[in-house]
Specification:
The protein is of the alpha/beta class. The chain is built from 13 helices and seven strands.
Amino acid sequence: MKFKDRAINVDYRLTDLEDDLVSYINAHKDEVIRLKMTNLAQRFYTVPNTITRFCHKLGYEGFVDLKNQLRWELETVQETSSLLKRHYLIETLDLIDPSREEKCIAAFQAAKAVTFFAVGQTGELSKICVNNFYAFDPKFNFIEYPNTVEHKIEQSNRDVFFFVSLSGETIDMLRLAEKAKQKGHIVISLTGLGKNSLSTIADISLFCQIKPEIVEGYDVTDKTPLMIIFNNLFHAYLLTR
């Protein structure tokens, strides 16, 4: 997984100093791969242990591993389409965060109802995944109409609302997510990896790595990463029953 993707995935855990480190490294990769850890620490008026903890948060073994991965990013200019496919599937697996997953499962267990909402192709696939949850517990349900979701938000109390949008910018979804938050519900989002409005609203933000693909004006983006995250969450829930 690339440095910028790792940083986005654990953004909720980063301190202000670590955010500054992310910005600096993104802008100066060529320089960072030649720096010693003590030099980088001095530039931010901190100590090497802080840099080491930062590397660990992002999933690196240490600063040397971070530099090696940055060097690989800079040297990798072109990849075959088959390799790209393999990479974004593997990167989605790398995005699975046990601490966030545990929070999701805890929210599922505490709620009287868990409502999923998605539209279009994403909705069709999400419904299939939600059916697995429903087979073991009827409190899980998928709703495909915004008005029905809105009614449920108004009528229920401290439930979980799980919104799925690859872009994270679907207008109806953002409106409903905001309303659910205002009503005191727990909001969970599953979006493509990146800064987006839905993940900002959500109490718990899950990500998958998506490679958009348009053929003759038709969206043929591979949704397998979406299924990977859902399937992993489903099996994690089964272990707690």
